[in-house]
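Example 3.2
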Amino acid sequence: MKLKYLFSILFVLSMNACSKEFLEIPPVDRLTADNFYRNASDVRAATAALYGVPWFDFNDKFFWLTGDCMSGNMYYTYDQEGQFFYFSFTPGNAHLSAGWKGIYRVVSYANSIINDMPRIAENNGVSRGVIDGAIAEARFMRGTAYYFIAEYWGEAPIVENAGALVAANDLILPKNTKANLYEFARRDLAFAAETLPASDGAGRVTQWSAKGMLAKLHLTMAQNLGDSKSAENFAKARDYAAKSSKRAAFRL
């Protein structure tokens, strides 16, 4: 009889252990996407993070090695840094790898805000204007990142939602052409130019930041793609630059 009761207790416990509610306990000791984004301040704090740490590995050495060092503005011949000075770097170069991982970290941070934030923030009563503004900030950063990816690597994967790719076990991504990378960056920056405010707190991007980047992007496209749209891209670069310069002159 005792054995019968014991089996009954074990059966009940096993049923509870297998239930979704038993296994999925919301963490109370740390922030997650589901317990963050409670108000406008949380959303703004999330986008503020886009301006710092995610860019570190890209900026730390890769950016000046591929800029000042390769242009001859800096003399640096030591070890793997010197490979950039002599134009002899290999795929195994640690700084090249750090630059690649770093720029995709920016993409990952931006995608997290673009994909995860809106639903949670809206459910918590955050206004649509705050949500759209945060998405625009994230898309500015992602668009800028893909501009750099196109410039430095030429062909690379476009990742819009890593979570969905992992869930689908779709982990082998094809490379996109430079033209496609430019176009993806253009769409992100155009959204940012249309959605960001004309002014914001110190250090925050605005619609003028996006228009300045669009001018740079269209000028690059006109020069590098060499297709029938070169004249159109030159004209767009001129127009965006004119708008940005007028704003800059006004602020002075």
